[in-house]
Amino acid sequence: MKIDPVERGERKVYSVAAFNRGVRDWVARLPTVWVEGEVTELRHHANWQTVFFTLKDPAEGACLAVTMPRGQFDALRIDLADGERVHVFGRPELFEQRGDLRLRALTVERFGLGDHLAALERLKRKLAAEGLFAAARKRPLPRLPRAIGLVTGNDAAAKRDVLTTIVERFPPARVVVAETYVQGPRAAPAIVDALAALCRLPELDVVVVARGGGSFEDLLPFSDERLVRAVAACPVPVVTAVGHEQDTPLCDLAADVRASTPTAAGRLVVPDVRELHATLGRSRAALERGTRRTLDRERQRLATTRERLTRAPALALERKRAALNHAAARLQALSPRSTLERGYAIVRSGDDLVRSSATVAPGDPLRIEVADGSFGARVE
Prior knowledge:
By secondary structure, the chain is of the alpha/beta class. It contains ten helices and 16 strands. The protein has helices at about 15-30, 70-75, 115-130, 155-170, 185-200, 225-235, 250-255, 260-270, 275-335, 335-340; strands spanning about 5-10, 10-15, 35-45, 50-55, 65-70, 85-95, 100-115, 145-150, 175-180, 205-210, 240, 255-260, 345-350, 350-355, 365-370, 375-380. The strands form four sheets. A five-stranded mixed barrel has the order 3-4-5-7-6. The protein has a five-stranded parallel sheet with strand order 9-8-10-11-12, sandwiched between helices. Strands 14-13-15-16 form a four-stranded antiparallel sheet.
């Protein structure tokens, strides 16, 4: 289809749509080609009909957008990831509506790990061998931090998300923000310096390193060896929230806790004041119930003790009375008068008891005592 210009005086002028249409038709006549590069910004969603990613030339930094129907991409079963080097066979095309040049991929072949990813893998193995990623090094986060350090970019959405979450959850929280570069060649040393400056603050209990999403290259500073070692050597626990859920820079492995998003990091470093109030309320109610039960037990114990003390004198008196009665009964049983009441008598000769007939002689006066009195007698 021929694209005709519009006459504007002596000029022939093309509309934007006509110009894009003409370029699109010209690009469509180009042949299919193989293109080599590293995969970045891979976007693959089950509900999308198209898979999007970018091919990057690691030597010169040139980028090329690539699209591929999801059905064809899934059929390849190559499980691509950012940083891998691939060969893509496809045809260039121009997205007419926006004037974007893309490569419409027909197939993709894995060529090998990209330079960046290969270097990261080597560094990852080296640091892991030194124990920087060991689970035993991970420290628990403080329950109520006195001061929270935040390393983030200037006017970054990540900073806003972290601060908003912290303030909403725990308004009294004290946050010290260190704004620095979070992208580009100066980012890694700048983040290391910001982290060191925060760690010199008194009462600092935890540090959050946050950055929003970005391409594979944008997040490379967070895999820099200097930064990873600084995170591992930080004297207080470090929470990293870099990129999206699928992004895992090396600083995440060295951090004490890795948060999937900056908002999640804010939830991790401070408790929810509403939950604290609810917990305190439950604890207060439990203390009240415990105190009430203790008082009831003590009250019951005192009542029992008072009752026992009230009964104790009477019981003691009864025991003493019973003991006296028993002693009286025994004394009564042993009394000579009890013997006399059974019909016996006591015989005396003068002041002496007569225990044998040989001790008296006929005519001797005797004194006989029976139960109800006494009378005289004489020996015959």
